[in-house]
Specification:
GO terms for molecular function: prenyltransferase activity. The chain has 16 helices and no strands. It is mostly helical and about 375 residues long. It folds into two domains: about 170 residues, UbiA prenyltransferase (Tetracycline Repressor, domain 2, Orthogonal Bundle), CATH 1.10.357.140; about 130 residues, Four Helix Bundle (Hemerythrin (Met), subunit A) (Up-down Bundle). Helix 8 runs antiparallel to helix 9 and helix 11 packs antiparallel against helix 16. It starts with a helix and ends with a helix.
């Protein structure tokens, strides 16, 4: 109201003709003088207070936006995408196999399960960032703790909250076995990053942990929980055996190639990885070779078991993905394994990971 009054007064002062229409000609000057004096004596301080409040609100909004951005980077979005796509694909597979058991009232439970998986993922990648601040300042300066956008104390609050929330959701919705597997995943994640074990320092234990969590625990756990929610006993289906074996080997490739862009920082902090031991080129070729083995095996399985798999889509999609991998490897070789090319190659491996889960329900 007061701001609007001030604007109106200024309009009257700048437009005498408008003022003449509103006020009688006689005494206009005196009234205008009284109005201006009134504005100067009271409205100016009120306007300043209003402007201060507006600036404070803008500052709060900016801080919230900065925290949202830091929290999202803290969760490592590429791993969140992998968790969402993978778990959704496994649920879809279980539903396709048991279409007569579909119950839409279970959708909220499924969403709670997905939230629990994201919480577990956030705990594992978050606790790794807490103990890797020095390395990340060299290898991944964009991460929120390394960049100074998130304090260590705030990060601890986040990871502990994620662990408690995720465990609580699983314990109240999915039974003892799934809860035990979920807690095992959290423990393995801590063993990977937290001293004195800090198994990420050793190449073999590090890749075994990643392969176990991302490969076996996720696939078995989601499929088991889905069948249990549908009221069905657990039975290994050929499709789930395939995707579990495929993704476990794929997770092994992720485990050995994830350090390709980080060789500089790992050498500085004496972190032993396959890339620091065997060299970037050798590990790139090894990772690509293992993935090609996966794709060749998938094509062979498609033709060997036509009664189990959808032969056409399975063989064609895996053939195309294998060719794309070879092309990306050729680009890496042509770029002479520059840091930018290595990062691009690693991101492409994650894209192949997403693609496998996306085609899984159709095979």
């Amino acid at each position: 109201m007061q701001v609007g009054f001030r604007v109106g007064v200024e309009c009257l002062i700048r437009n005498p003709q408008l003022g003449a229409q509103i006020f009688p000609r006689q005494g206009l000057k005196e009234r205008r003088t009284r109005v201006i004096c009134s504005v100067s004596s009271g409205t100016g301080s009120d306007f300043a207070e209003y402007k201060s409040n507006e600036e404070e609100e803008a500052s709060v909004r900016q801080r919230l936006e900065n925290f949202r951005d830091a929290f999202w980077r803290f969760l490592r979005p590429h791993t969140v995408r992998g968790t969402i796509i993978g778990s959704t694909s496994l649920v879809a597979r279980a539903l396709l196999e048991n279409a007569d058991c579909i119950n839409w009232f279970l959708v909220p439970k499924a969403l709670r399960g997905l939230l629990a998986l994201i919480c577990g993922n956030g705990y594992i990648v978050g606790i790794n960032q807490i103990y890797d601040v020095g390395i990340d300042k060299v290898n991944k300066p964009f991460l929120p703790i390394a960049a100074g956008d998130l304090s260590v104390s705030t990060a601890w609050t986040l990871v502990l909250s994620l662990a408690v929330l995720g465990t609580g959701i699983v314990a109240t919705n999915f039974g003892r076995l799934i809860t035990s597997l979920y807690v095992l995943g959290l423990v393995l994640g801590a063993m990977y990053s937290v001293p004195p074990l800090r198994l990420k320092r050793f190449a073999v234990p590090a890749f075994l942990i990643i392969a176990t969590v991302r490969g076996f625990l996720l696939n078995f756990g989601v499929y088991y929980a889905t069948r249990a929610s549908l009221g069905l006993p657990f039975v290994w289906s050929p499709h789930v055996i395939f995707i579990t074996a495929f993704v476990t080997l794929f997770a092994t490739v992720i485990a050995i190639t994830k350090d390709l862009p980080d060789v500089e920082g790992d050498l500085k902090f004496k972190i032993s990885t396959f890339a620091t031991k065997l060299g970037v080129r050798n590990i790139s070729l090894l990772g690509a070779g293992l993935l090609l083995t996966n794709y060749i095996g998938a094509v062979v399985a498609a033709f060997r078991f036509p009664q189990v798999f959808n032969t056409g889509p399975m063989a064609i999609t895996h053939g195309i993905l294998g060719v794309c991998l070879l092309y990306q490897l050729w680009l890496l070789e042509s770029a002479k394994y520059s840091k930018e090319a290595i990062s691009t190659f690693y991101r492409f491996i994650w894209n192949l990971f997403y693609a496998e889960y996306l085609v899984f329900p159709a095979i």
